[in-house]
Amino acid sequence: MHLRAAAITLTAVLCIFTTGCATAEKDPYRELGPGELALRKITDAREIPDFTEALKNTDDLDAAIAHSLSYLAKPSSQSFFPSAGLTHEQVRVSLEEFRAMLADGDDAKTLNAEIRRRFDVYTTVGYDGEGTILYTGYYTPIFEASLTRDDRFRYPLHKLPANHVKDPLTGETKGLRGEEGSIDPNYPTRRELLNSGMLDGTELVWLSDPVEAYVVQVQGSAILRLADGTEFEVGYAGTNGREYKSIGAELIKRGKLTKAELNLDSIVRYFRKNPQDFDAITGANDRYVFFQQNSGGPFGCLNEQVLPDRSLATDKTIFPRGGLCLVETVLPTHRNSARKVSRFMLDQDAGGAIRAPGRADIYWGSGDAAQQRAGRTRSEGRLYYLVLKDRELRGREKVAK
């Protein structure tokens, strides 16, 4: 992200079957059954949400729509459709028409009625078949760093190895290319990569704290401040293709923290107090993330900029890329409280822990405030997709002819 698909949401790092996370009775990671789609069209008008509240706050919404349309204008985007039963044309034209409606400047009440008249509304089936989604959050950290190693900055983020092979369309890791050109799919684990020296010479930038370097791996992007005051932006370039394992789970398994104690601050405090445990515990996670220098990001899996409070990460194997969504849930505010929200967002990103129809991840922005909100985002809610009605789509095609 460019793809963030290999990065893991901050909450997922901590989420070890605690309140709001998966339990035996409530499993947000339930996968779709054979032939089951992630979206279901609502046919009972009483189930369609009221959009009035969401239409009262449209800051940055036009920009977010523009990013989705930019992605859908790329010929390669058509390869990922149909998705959840929706075509590329349905998603693209729906965005164009919705954007035009917003530009007309009608009040929220009028727009609400117009949306209900012209758009079909799809609901996610959720993890329970009833549309329930578990929302979490992610952010872009800001840390100090150096382009050269010294006594303070000793912990690197690495670029992709020169022989790294990935699918040119999806970005999926295929393996490492050997001297004879064959591809070995058995990519080394995190521990093997770091202990073998095979990444020597691929260092992109250096951080002063191994925990901070690990957080960047988890989030998939970062803004790094160099000594001369300039900012060095890094973003996801790929992974070793190995499965992710939560360090929170490992800390609990080893009896270092309890479920009740587990949060980002407690994990950071533990490692700074017990640095001798860091390599062993993080080494239990086989996944390793590689980075590249970016500018103008951070970027989601559409290779388009993600925007705070407007960009959503879902499982891109089952949800339509770039789609127009309505999020209904309870979200944290800047004042350490929470409130019920109804907000339009765009489906523009993915995440290693964002799998199955019952999970979604909200991008909160960069810095400390975003970190706090991302860490506190864990609530159930509903997720809807807006799609122009077939008659509206056909009418538009006739006008075009």
Defining key terms:
401 residues; 2 domains; six-stranded mixed sheet; single chain; 12 helices; globular; six-stranded mixed barrel; Ribosomal Protein L25, Chain P; Barwin-like endoglucanases; 26% strand; alpha+beta
Walk me through what this model shows.
The chain has helices at residues 10-14, 52-55, 61-72, 88-103, 108-118, 190-196, 210-219, 247-253, 264-273, 278-282, 368-376, 390-400, and strands spanning 39-41, 119-124, 133-140, 142-146, 155-158, 164-166, 173-177, 183-184, 203-207, 221-225, 231-239, 289-294, 311-313, 324-332, 338-349, 359-366, 378-388. The chain has 401 residues and is an alpha+beta fold. It folds into 2 domains: 33-138 and 305-400, Barwin-like endoglucanases (Beta Barrel); 142-294, Barwin-like endoglucanases (Ribosomal Protein L25, Chain P). It has a 6-stranded mixed beta barrel with strand order 3-16-13-15-14-17, surrounded by 4 helices. Strands 5-9-4-10-11-12 form a 6-stranded mixed beta sheet, covered by helices on one side. Helix 3 (61-72) packs antiparallel against helix 4. The relative contact order is 0.24.
In short:
This protein has two domains: 202 residues, RlpA-like domain (Barwin-like endoglucanases); 153 residues, Ribosomal Protein L25, Chain P (Beta Barrel).
The ordered H/E elements are: HEHHHHEEEEEEEHEHEEHHHEEEEEHEH
CATH class label of the largest domain: Mainly Beta
Categorize the overall geometry. globular
- Name of the CATH homologous superfamily of the largest domain: RlpA-like domain
- How much is the radius of gyration in Å? 22 Å
Count of individual helical segments: 12
Low-confidence stretches: 14-24
CATH topology of the largest domain: Barwin-like endoglucanases
Structural class by helix and strand composition: alpha+beta
Name the helicity range. Answer: 25-40%
- Mean pLDDT, all residues: 89
- First-to-last CA distance: 37 Å
**Count of the domains:** 2
Placed side by side, the strands forming the largest sheet appear as: 3-16-13-15-14-17
Beta strand %: 25-35%
Q: Judging by the overall fold, what is the CATH architecture of the largest domain?
A: Beta Barrel
Major beta-sheet overview? 6 strands, mixed, barrel
